[in-house]
Specification:
The chain has about 625 residues and is an alpha/beta fold. It is built from 28 helices and 7 strands. A 5-stranded mixed sheet has the order 3-2-1-4-5, sandwiched between helices. The chain has a two-stranded antiparallel sheet with strand order 6-7. Residues about 20-45, about 335-340, about 495-510, about 525-535 and about 590-620 have low confidence and may be disordered. This is HAT C-terminal dimerisation domain-containing protein.
Amino acid sequence: MRGHVSSCHKDDYCKLMSPTASTASESADTEEAASQAKEGTLEAILPQITTSQRKELHRRITLWLVRRKRLLTLPENDTEFRDIFDFIFAGGYVPPTYKLVMQQMLELSSEGKENVHSAMDLLEREGILPSLAGDIWSEGGISIFGVLTYWIDAEFTLFERLSSAIPFSAVRHTASEIQSATKKACSDLHIGLYREDLALGDGVDTGDESVHCTISDNASNIISGWDCFDGYECCNHTLALIVKAFLEHPDIQGVFKKLRGMTTHFNHSVIGGNKLLNDCQKRHNMNVTKPPQDNDTRTGWGGACKQATWYMRYQVVIQMYGIENPVNASTAVPNPDGGSVYKDHRLDLLEWYIVKESAYFLTYVMNASNILQGTKYPTASLILPVLGKVAHYAEATTPLKFENAPVKITNESVIHGRKLLLTDFISRYFNGLQDCKLEDWCIATVLDPRYKHFTFHCVGRWMRGKLTAELALEWTRKCWEADWKPKGDESSMPALVPAQNKSKGQDGRPIVTAAAFLADSDDEEDATAHIQAGVVMEKEDELQAYLRIPRVAADVDLLAWWKVQSGKLPHLAKMARQFLAPPASTSFLCCGAHAWRPAKVHWGKHNRALAYGGNEYLDM
């Protein structure tokens, strides 16, 4: 705030900081000098604070406290914080007390709730169902059951809103409790109706009919609790379980244990990490960094991938560290992984090959995970193409690249680990996935003009080899004709044969984008190439017209494309809004929960106030 006054009100700020400035002219009389001094005060800079302005300041301070995860008592108890406002407003404004902050939070929560109500009512009038994603976060005796709602509005904007943050610390995390809490939250948001007196014969329960699908992790309690909804498990969580098969190979597991030991040494040893390692990095003209800590949970693996990549890049530095500093390198703080000093965790040449080749392979899986974790763009239609590409990369015969340079996997342990991962992938996805879960993914993919022809990798391996583009199209047509196709004359229209899409992908895009990740799929031939330009059938419905549109470039903005086409394909566009809205992952819920750790004790008592603020107001 001081910076704002000094930059936007420079003259007044100078007067304020130099009280003698207003009397610099020796010819000024006493009255004029007093007037100039008064003009230099902050009362002259800022108008008198009105009631509405005071309330808005309270609101903005509350938002700042929540977004920055500060204690809610800070404005009341922090003297320096209050002094800033006293200085700026010359005593004309006092920051809110804890009680007022809580009141503002509840008001923001109520506003967010009303906004979600309006959105859900509008979706209901349009005949579109929202989707839900949920997870339970527990730490330090505090548990929160978070449920997020997803939908795409008429302007083809994807929305993600926290619909409920339910205190779950005093509740058993059973399937029945999860189901009851979910349906109560949905009913409160106008997503179906729910009352608990069903046993009395006069209850109401339409929640499962008012949700398109749900996405959860692989925990048995939430899967059972949500079995009344259509839905599927988080793709990232399932990928994490699949990657465990790779990381639990005995040789690979031992190497990554050593990486954790060396990481502990470099991050905790003042001499080793802050001086000797940094000196080695500088001598080799490399960036001065430390290896990333592995903060993975039981099913997490991203930290292991980042560690392997870091050590691969700094292999020469780490090897020279032990050679140039034999005494200091062998003395350090105890490590939690069995060894007591750095020398117990040094890698031999064969182990360095395991680190390097593991980083090559895991980077592909990490890129796929990052794509599916996105929440700012539709991911439902990317599940089949991206997971198919992961299976393709897991094949021993598939050549790999790292940073656009060809690499080879020659270490027997990594080759075997790669096979173990593929075997688990096939068991969980290709052979073990229920048809009803695969059906939603197929319909979403058909409604994505980039991948609707199913020419990406491994299509024929799903459903034990029974999935085909024709079957996916059959599922889509049944759904279209049953729920979305209008009746009567408006169901048919002149055929649309638009011009070929000329957009091309941008060169040099990072590999983590879906367009780059899927760039070398088996999709060189466009399935619509045989259609002659200018041929017009007598009548065709919107789905037929859509399927005749040539495939668009992989980097086309999907929502923007549908917004343009919605004028020609209005009913199919509504169907797309429902099927493209669900996320592929719930990993963002875990990330959001961990972000609250600095204030978890304080927030634990008051998380009910967060129930409807969501990322619209509280920026979670």
